[in-house]
Amino acid sequence: MRLKGEKAEICYEETKEFFKKRACKYNPENPYSVTMYQDEHKDLVTERNRKEIEILYPRLGIGKSSRILDVACGIGRWADAVQEDIDLYYGIDFCSELVDIANDRNKRPNFRFFSCDLNHVVRKMNGHRFNLVLMIGIIVYINDVELNGVLNSIESLCEEHATVCVREPIASDQRLTLKRYYSEELKDDYNAIYRSKEELIGAFETTFLAKGFHIAEERALFEEADLNNRKETHQHYFILKR
Predict the structure, then answer these.
(1) How many whole angstroms separate alpha carbon 69 and alpha carbon 122?
(2) Which end of the chain is more exposed for a tag (fewer CB within 10 A), N or C?
(3) Could you give the 3-state DSSP secondary structure of residue 34?
(4) What is the C-alpha to C-alpha distance for residues 14 and 43, in angstroms, rounded to an integer?
(5) b/e string for 11-31 if b means 16 or more Cβ within 10 A?
(6) What's residue 187's pLDDT?
């Protein structure tokens, strides 16, 4: 189903099964397609990844003291981008099969990857706090009823001075929910909630912004039409700072 302008919940178990099957399609020659899709278009995956890192990385202030939490880390795509000698990198994902791949691909001793449900993320971190949080393409898979709780949990893991980077596919017009929608491109049923920019800002206002963060920057990620080839959605980013 394609639901425009109305609220509906998606099934987490179906989403987890979807990503489990995606992990089975992992190809070292086109590794990032697992979570960026475009299985048959390696060059597009490579260019989208390159452009995203080029735009966002300089805005994150990554250096020796960085303690990074990567929420929905997948196979460690953003971990690959971090070449500095940082303090700590924790990647979490609810798909254990993706986490297994991430651990196989990255052996740096201060980089660790865990399988973790977002409702239990605080307990999983064992008291660690972070000064940089990456939330790359995760909110689209969280139902409204749990979104504020998840964002508040993430905020509680932030140090007094911290940056949160949210990069999310959002609705260009009104909310669009895909519920058990069969994708010819992915050859599978797909579930996702594409919220409007205003809806996301509203969620930030009652969570991060209420706890001292402010939106330092936000805009569409890609200007190039060939990198943003969806009519109803586009990639958008928010840099929140405290």
Answers:
(1) 11
(2) N
(3) helix
(4) 29
(5) ebeebbebbeebbeebeeebb
(6) 87
Question: Angle CA(78)–CA(99)–CA(22) in degrees, nearest 5?
Answer: 90
Closest of 66, 31, 12, 24 to residue 192, by C-alpha? 12
Record the tokens describing residue 233, joined without a space.
Answer: 């959605």
Of residues 92, 87, 76, 1, the one with CA closest to residue 34: 76
Q: What is the pTM of this model?
A: 0.95
Q: Using CA atoms, how far apart are residues 155 and 161, in angstroms rounded to an integer?
A: 11
Ranges of beta strands (E only) in the chain are: 2-4, 67-71, 88-93, 111-115, 130-136, 158-171, 176-183, 188-194, 214-220, 233-241
- Run of H or E including 138: none
Q: Is 29 helix (H, G, I), strand (E, B) or coil?
A: coil
C-alpha 134/C-alpha 137 separation (Å) is: 9
Let me know: does 85 contact 66? Beta carbons within 8 Å.
Answer: no
Q: How far apart are CA 5 and CA 8, in angstroms?
A: 10
Q: Helix (H, G, I), strand (E, B), or coil: what is residue 111?
A: strand
Q: Rounded to whole angstroms, how far apart are CA atoms 236 and 222?
A: 8
CA 113 distance to own-chain centroid: 15
Q: Which amino acid is at 88?
A: L
pLDDT digits 0-9 by tens, 63-107: 999 999 999 999 999 999 999 999 999 999 999 999 999 999 999
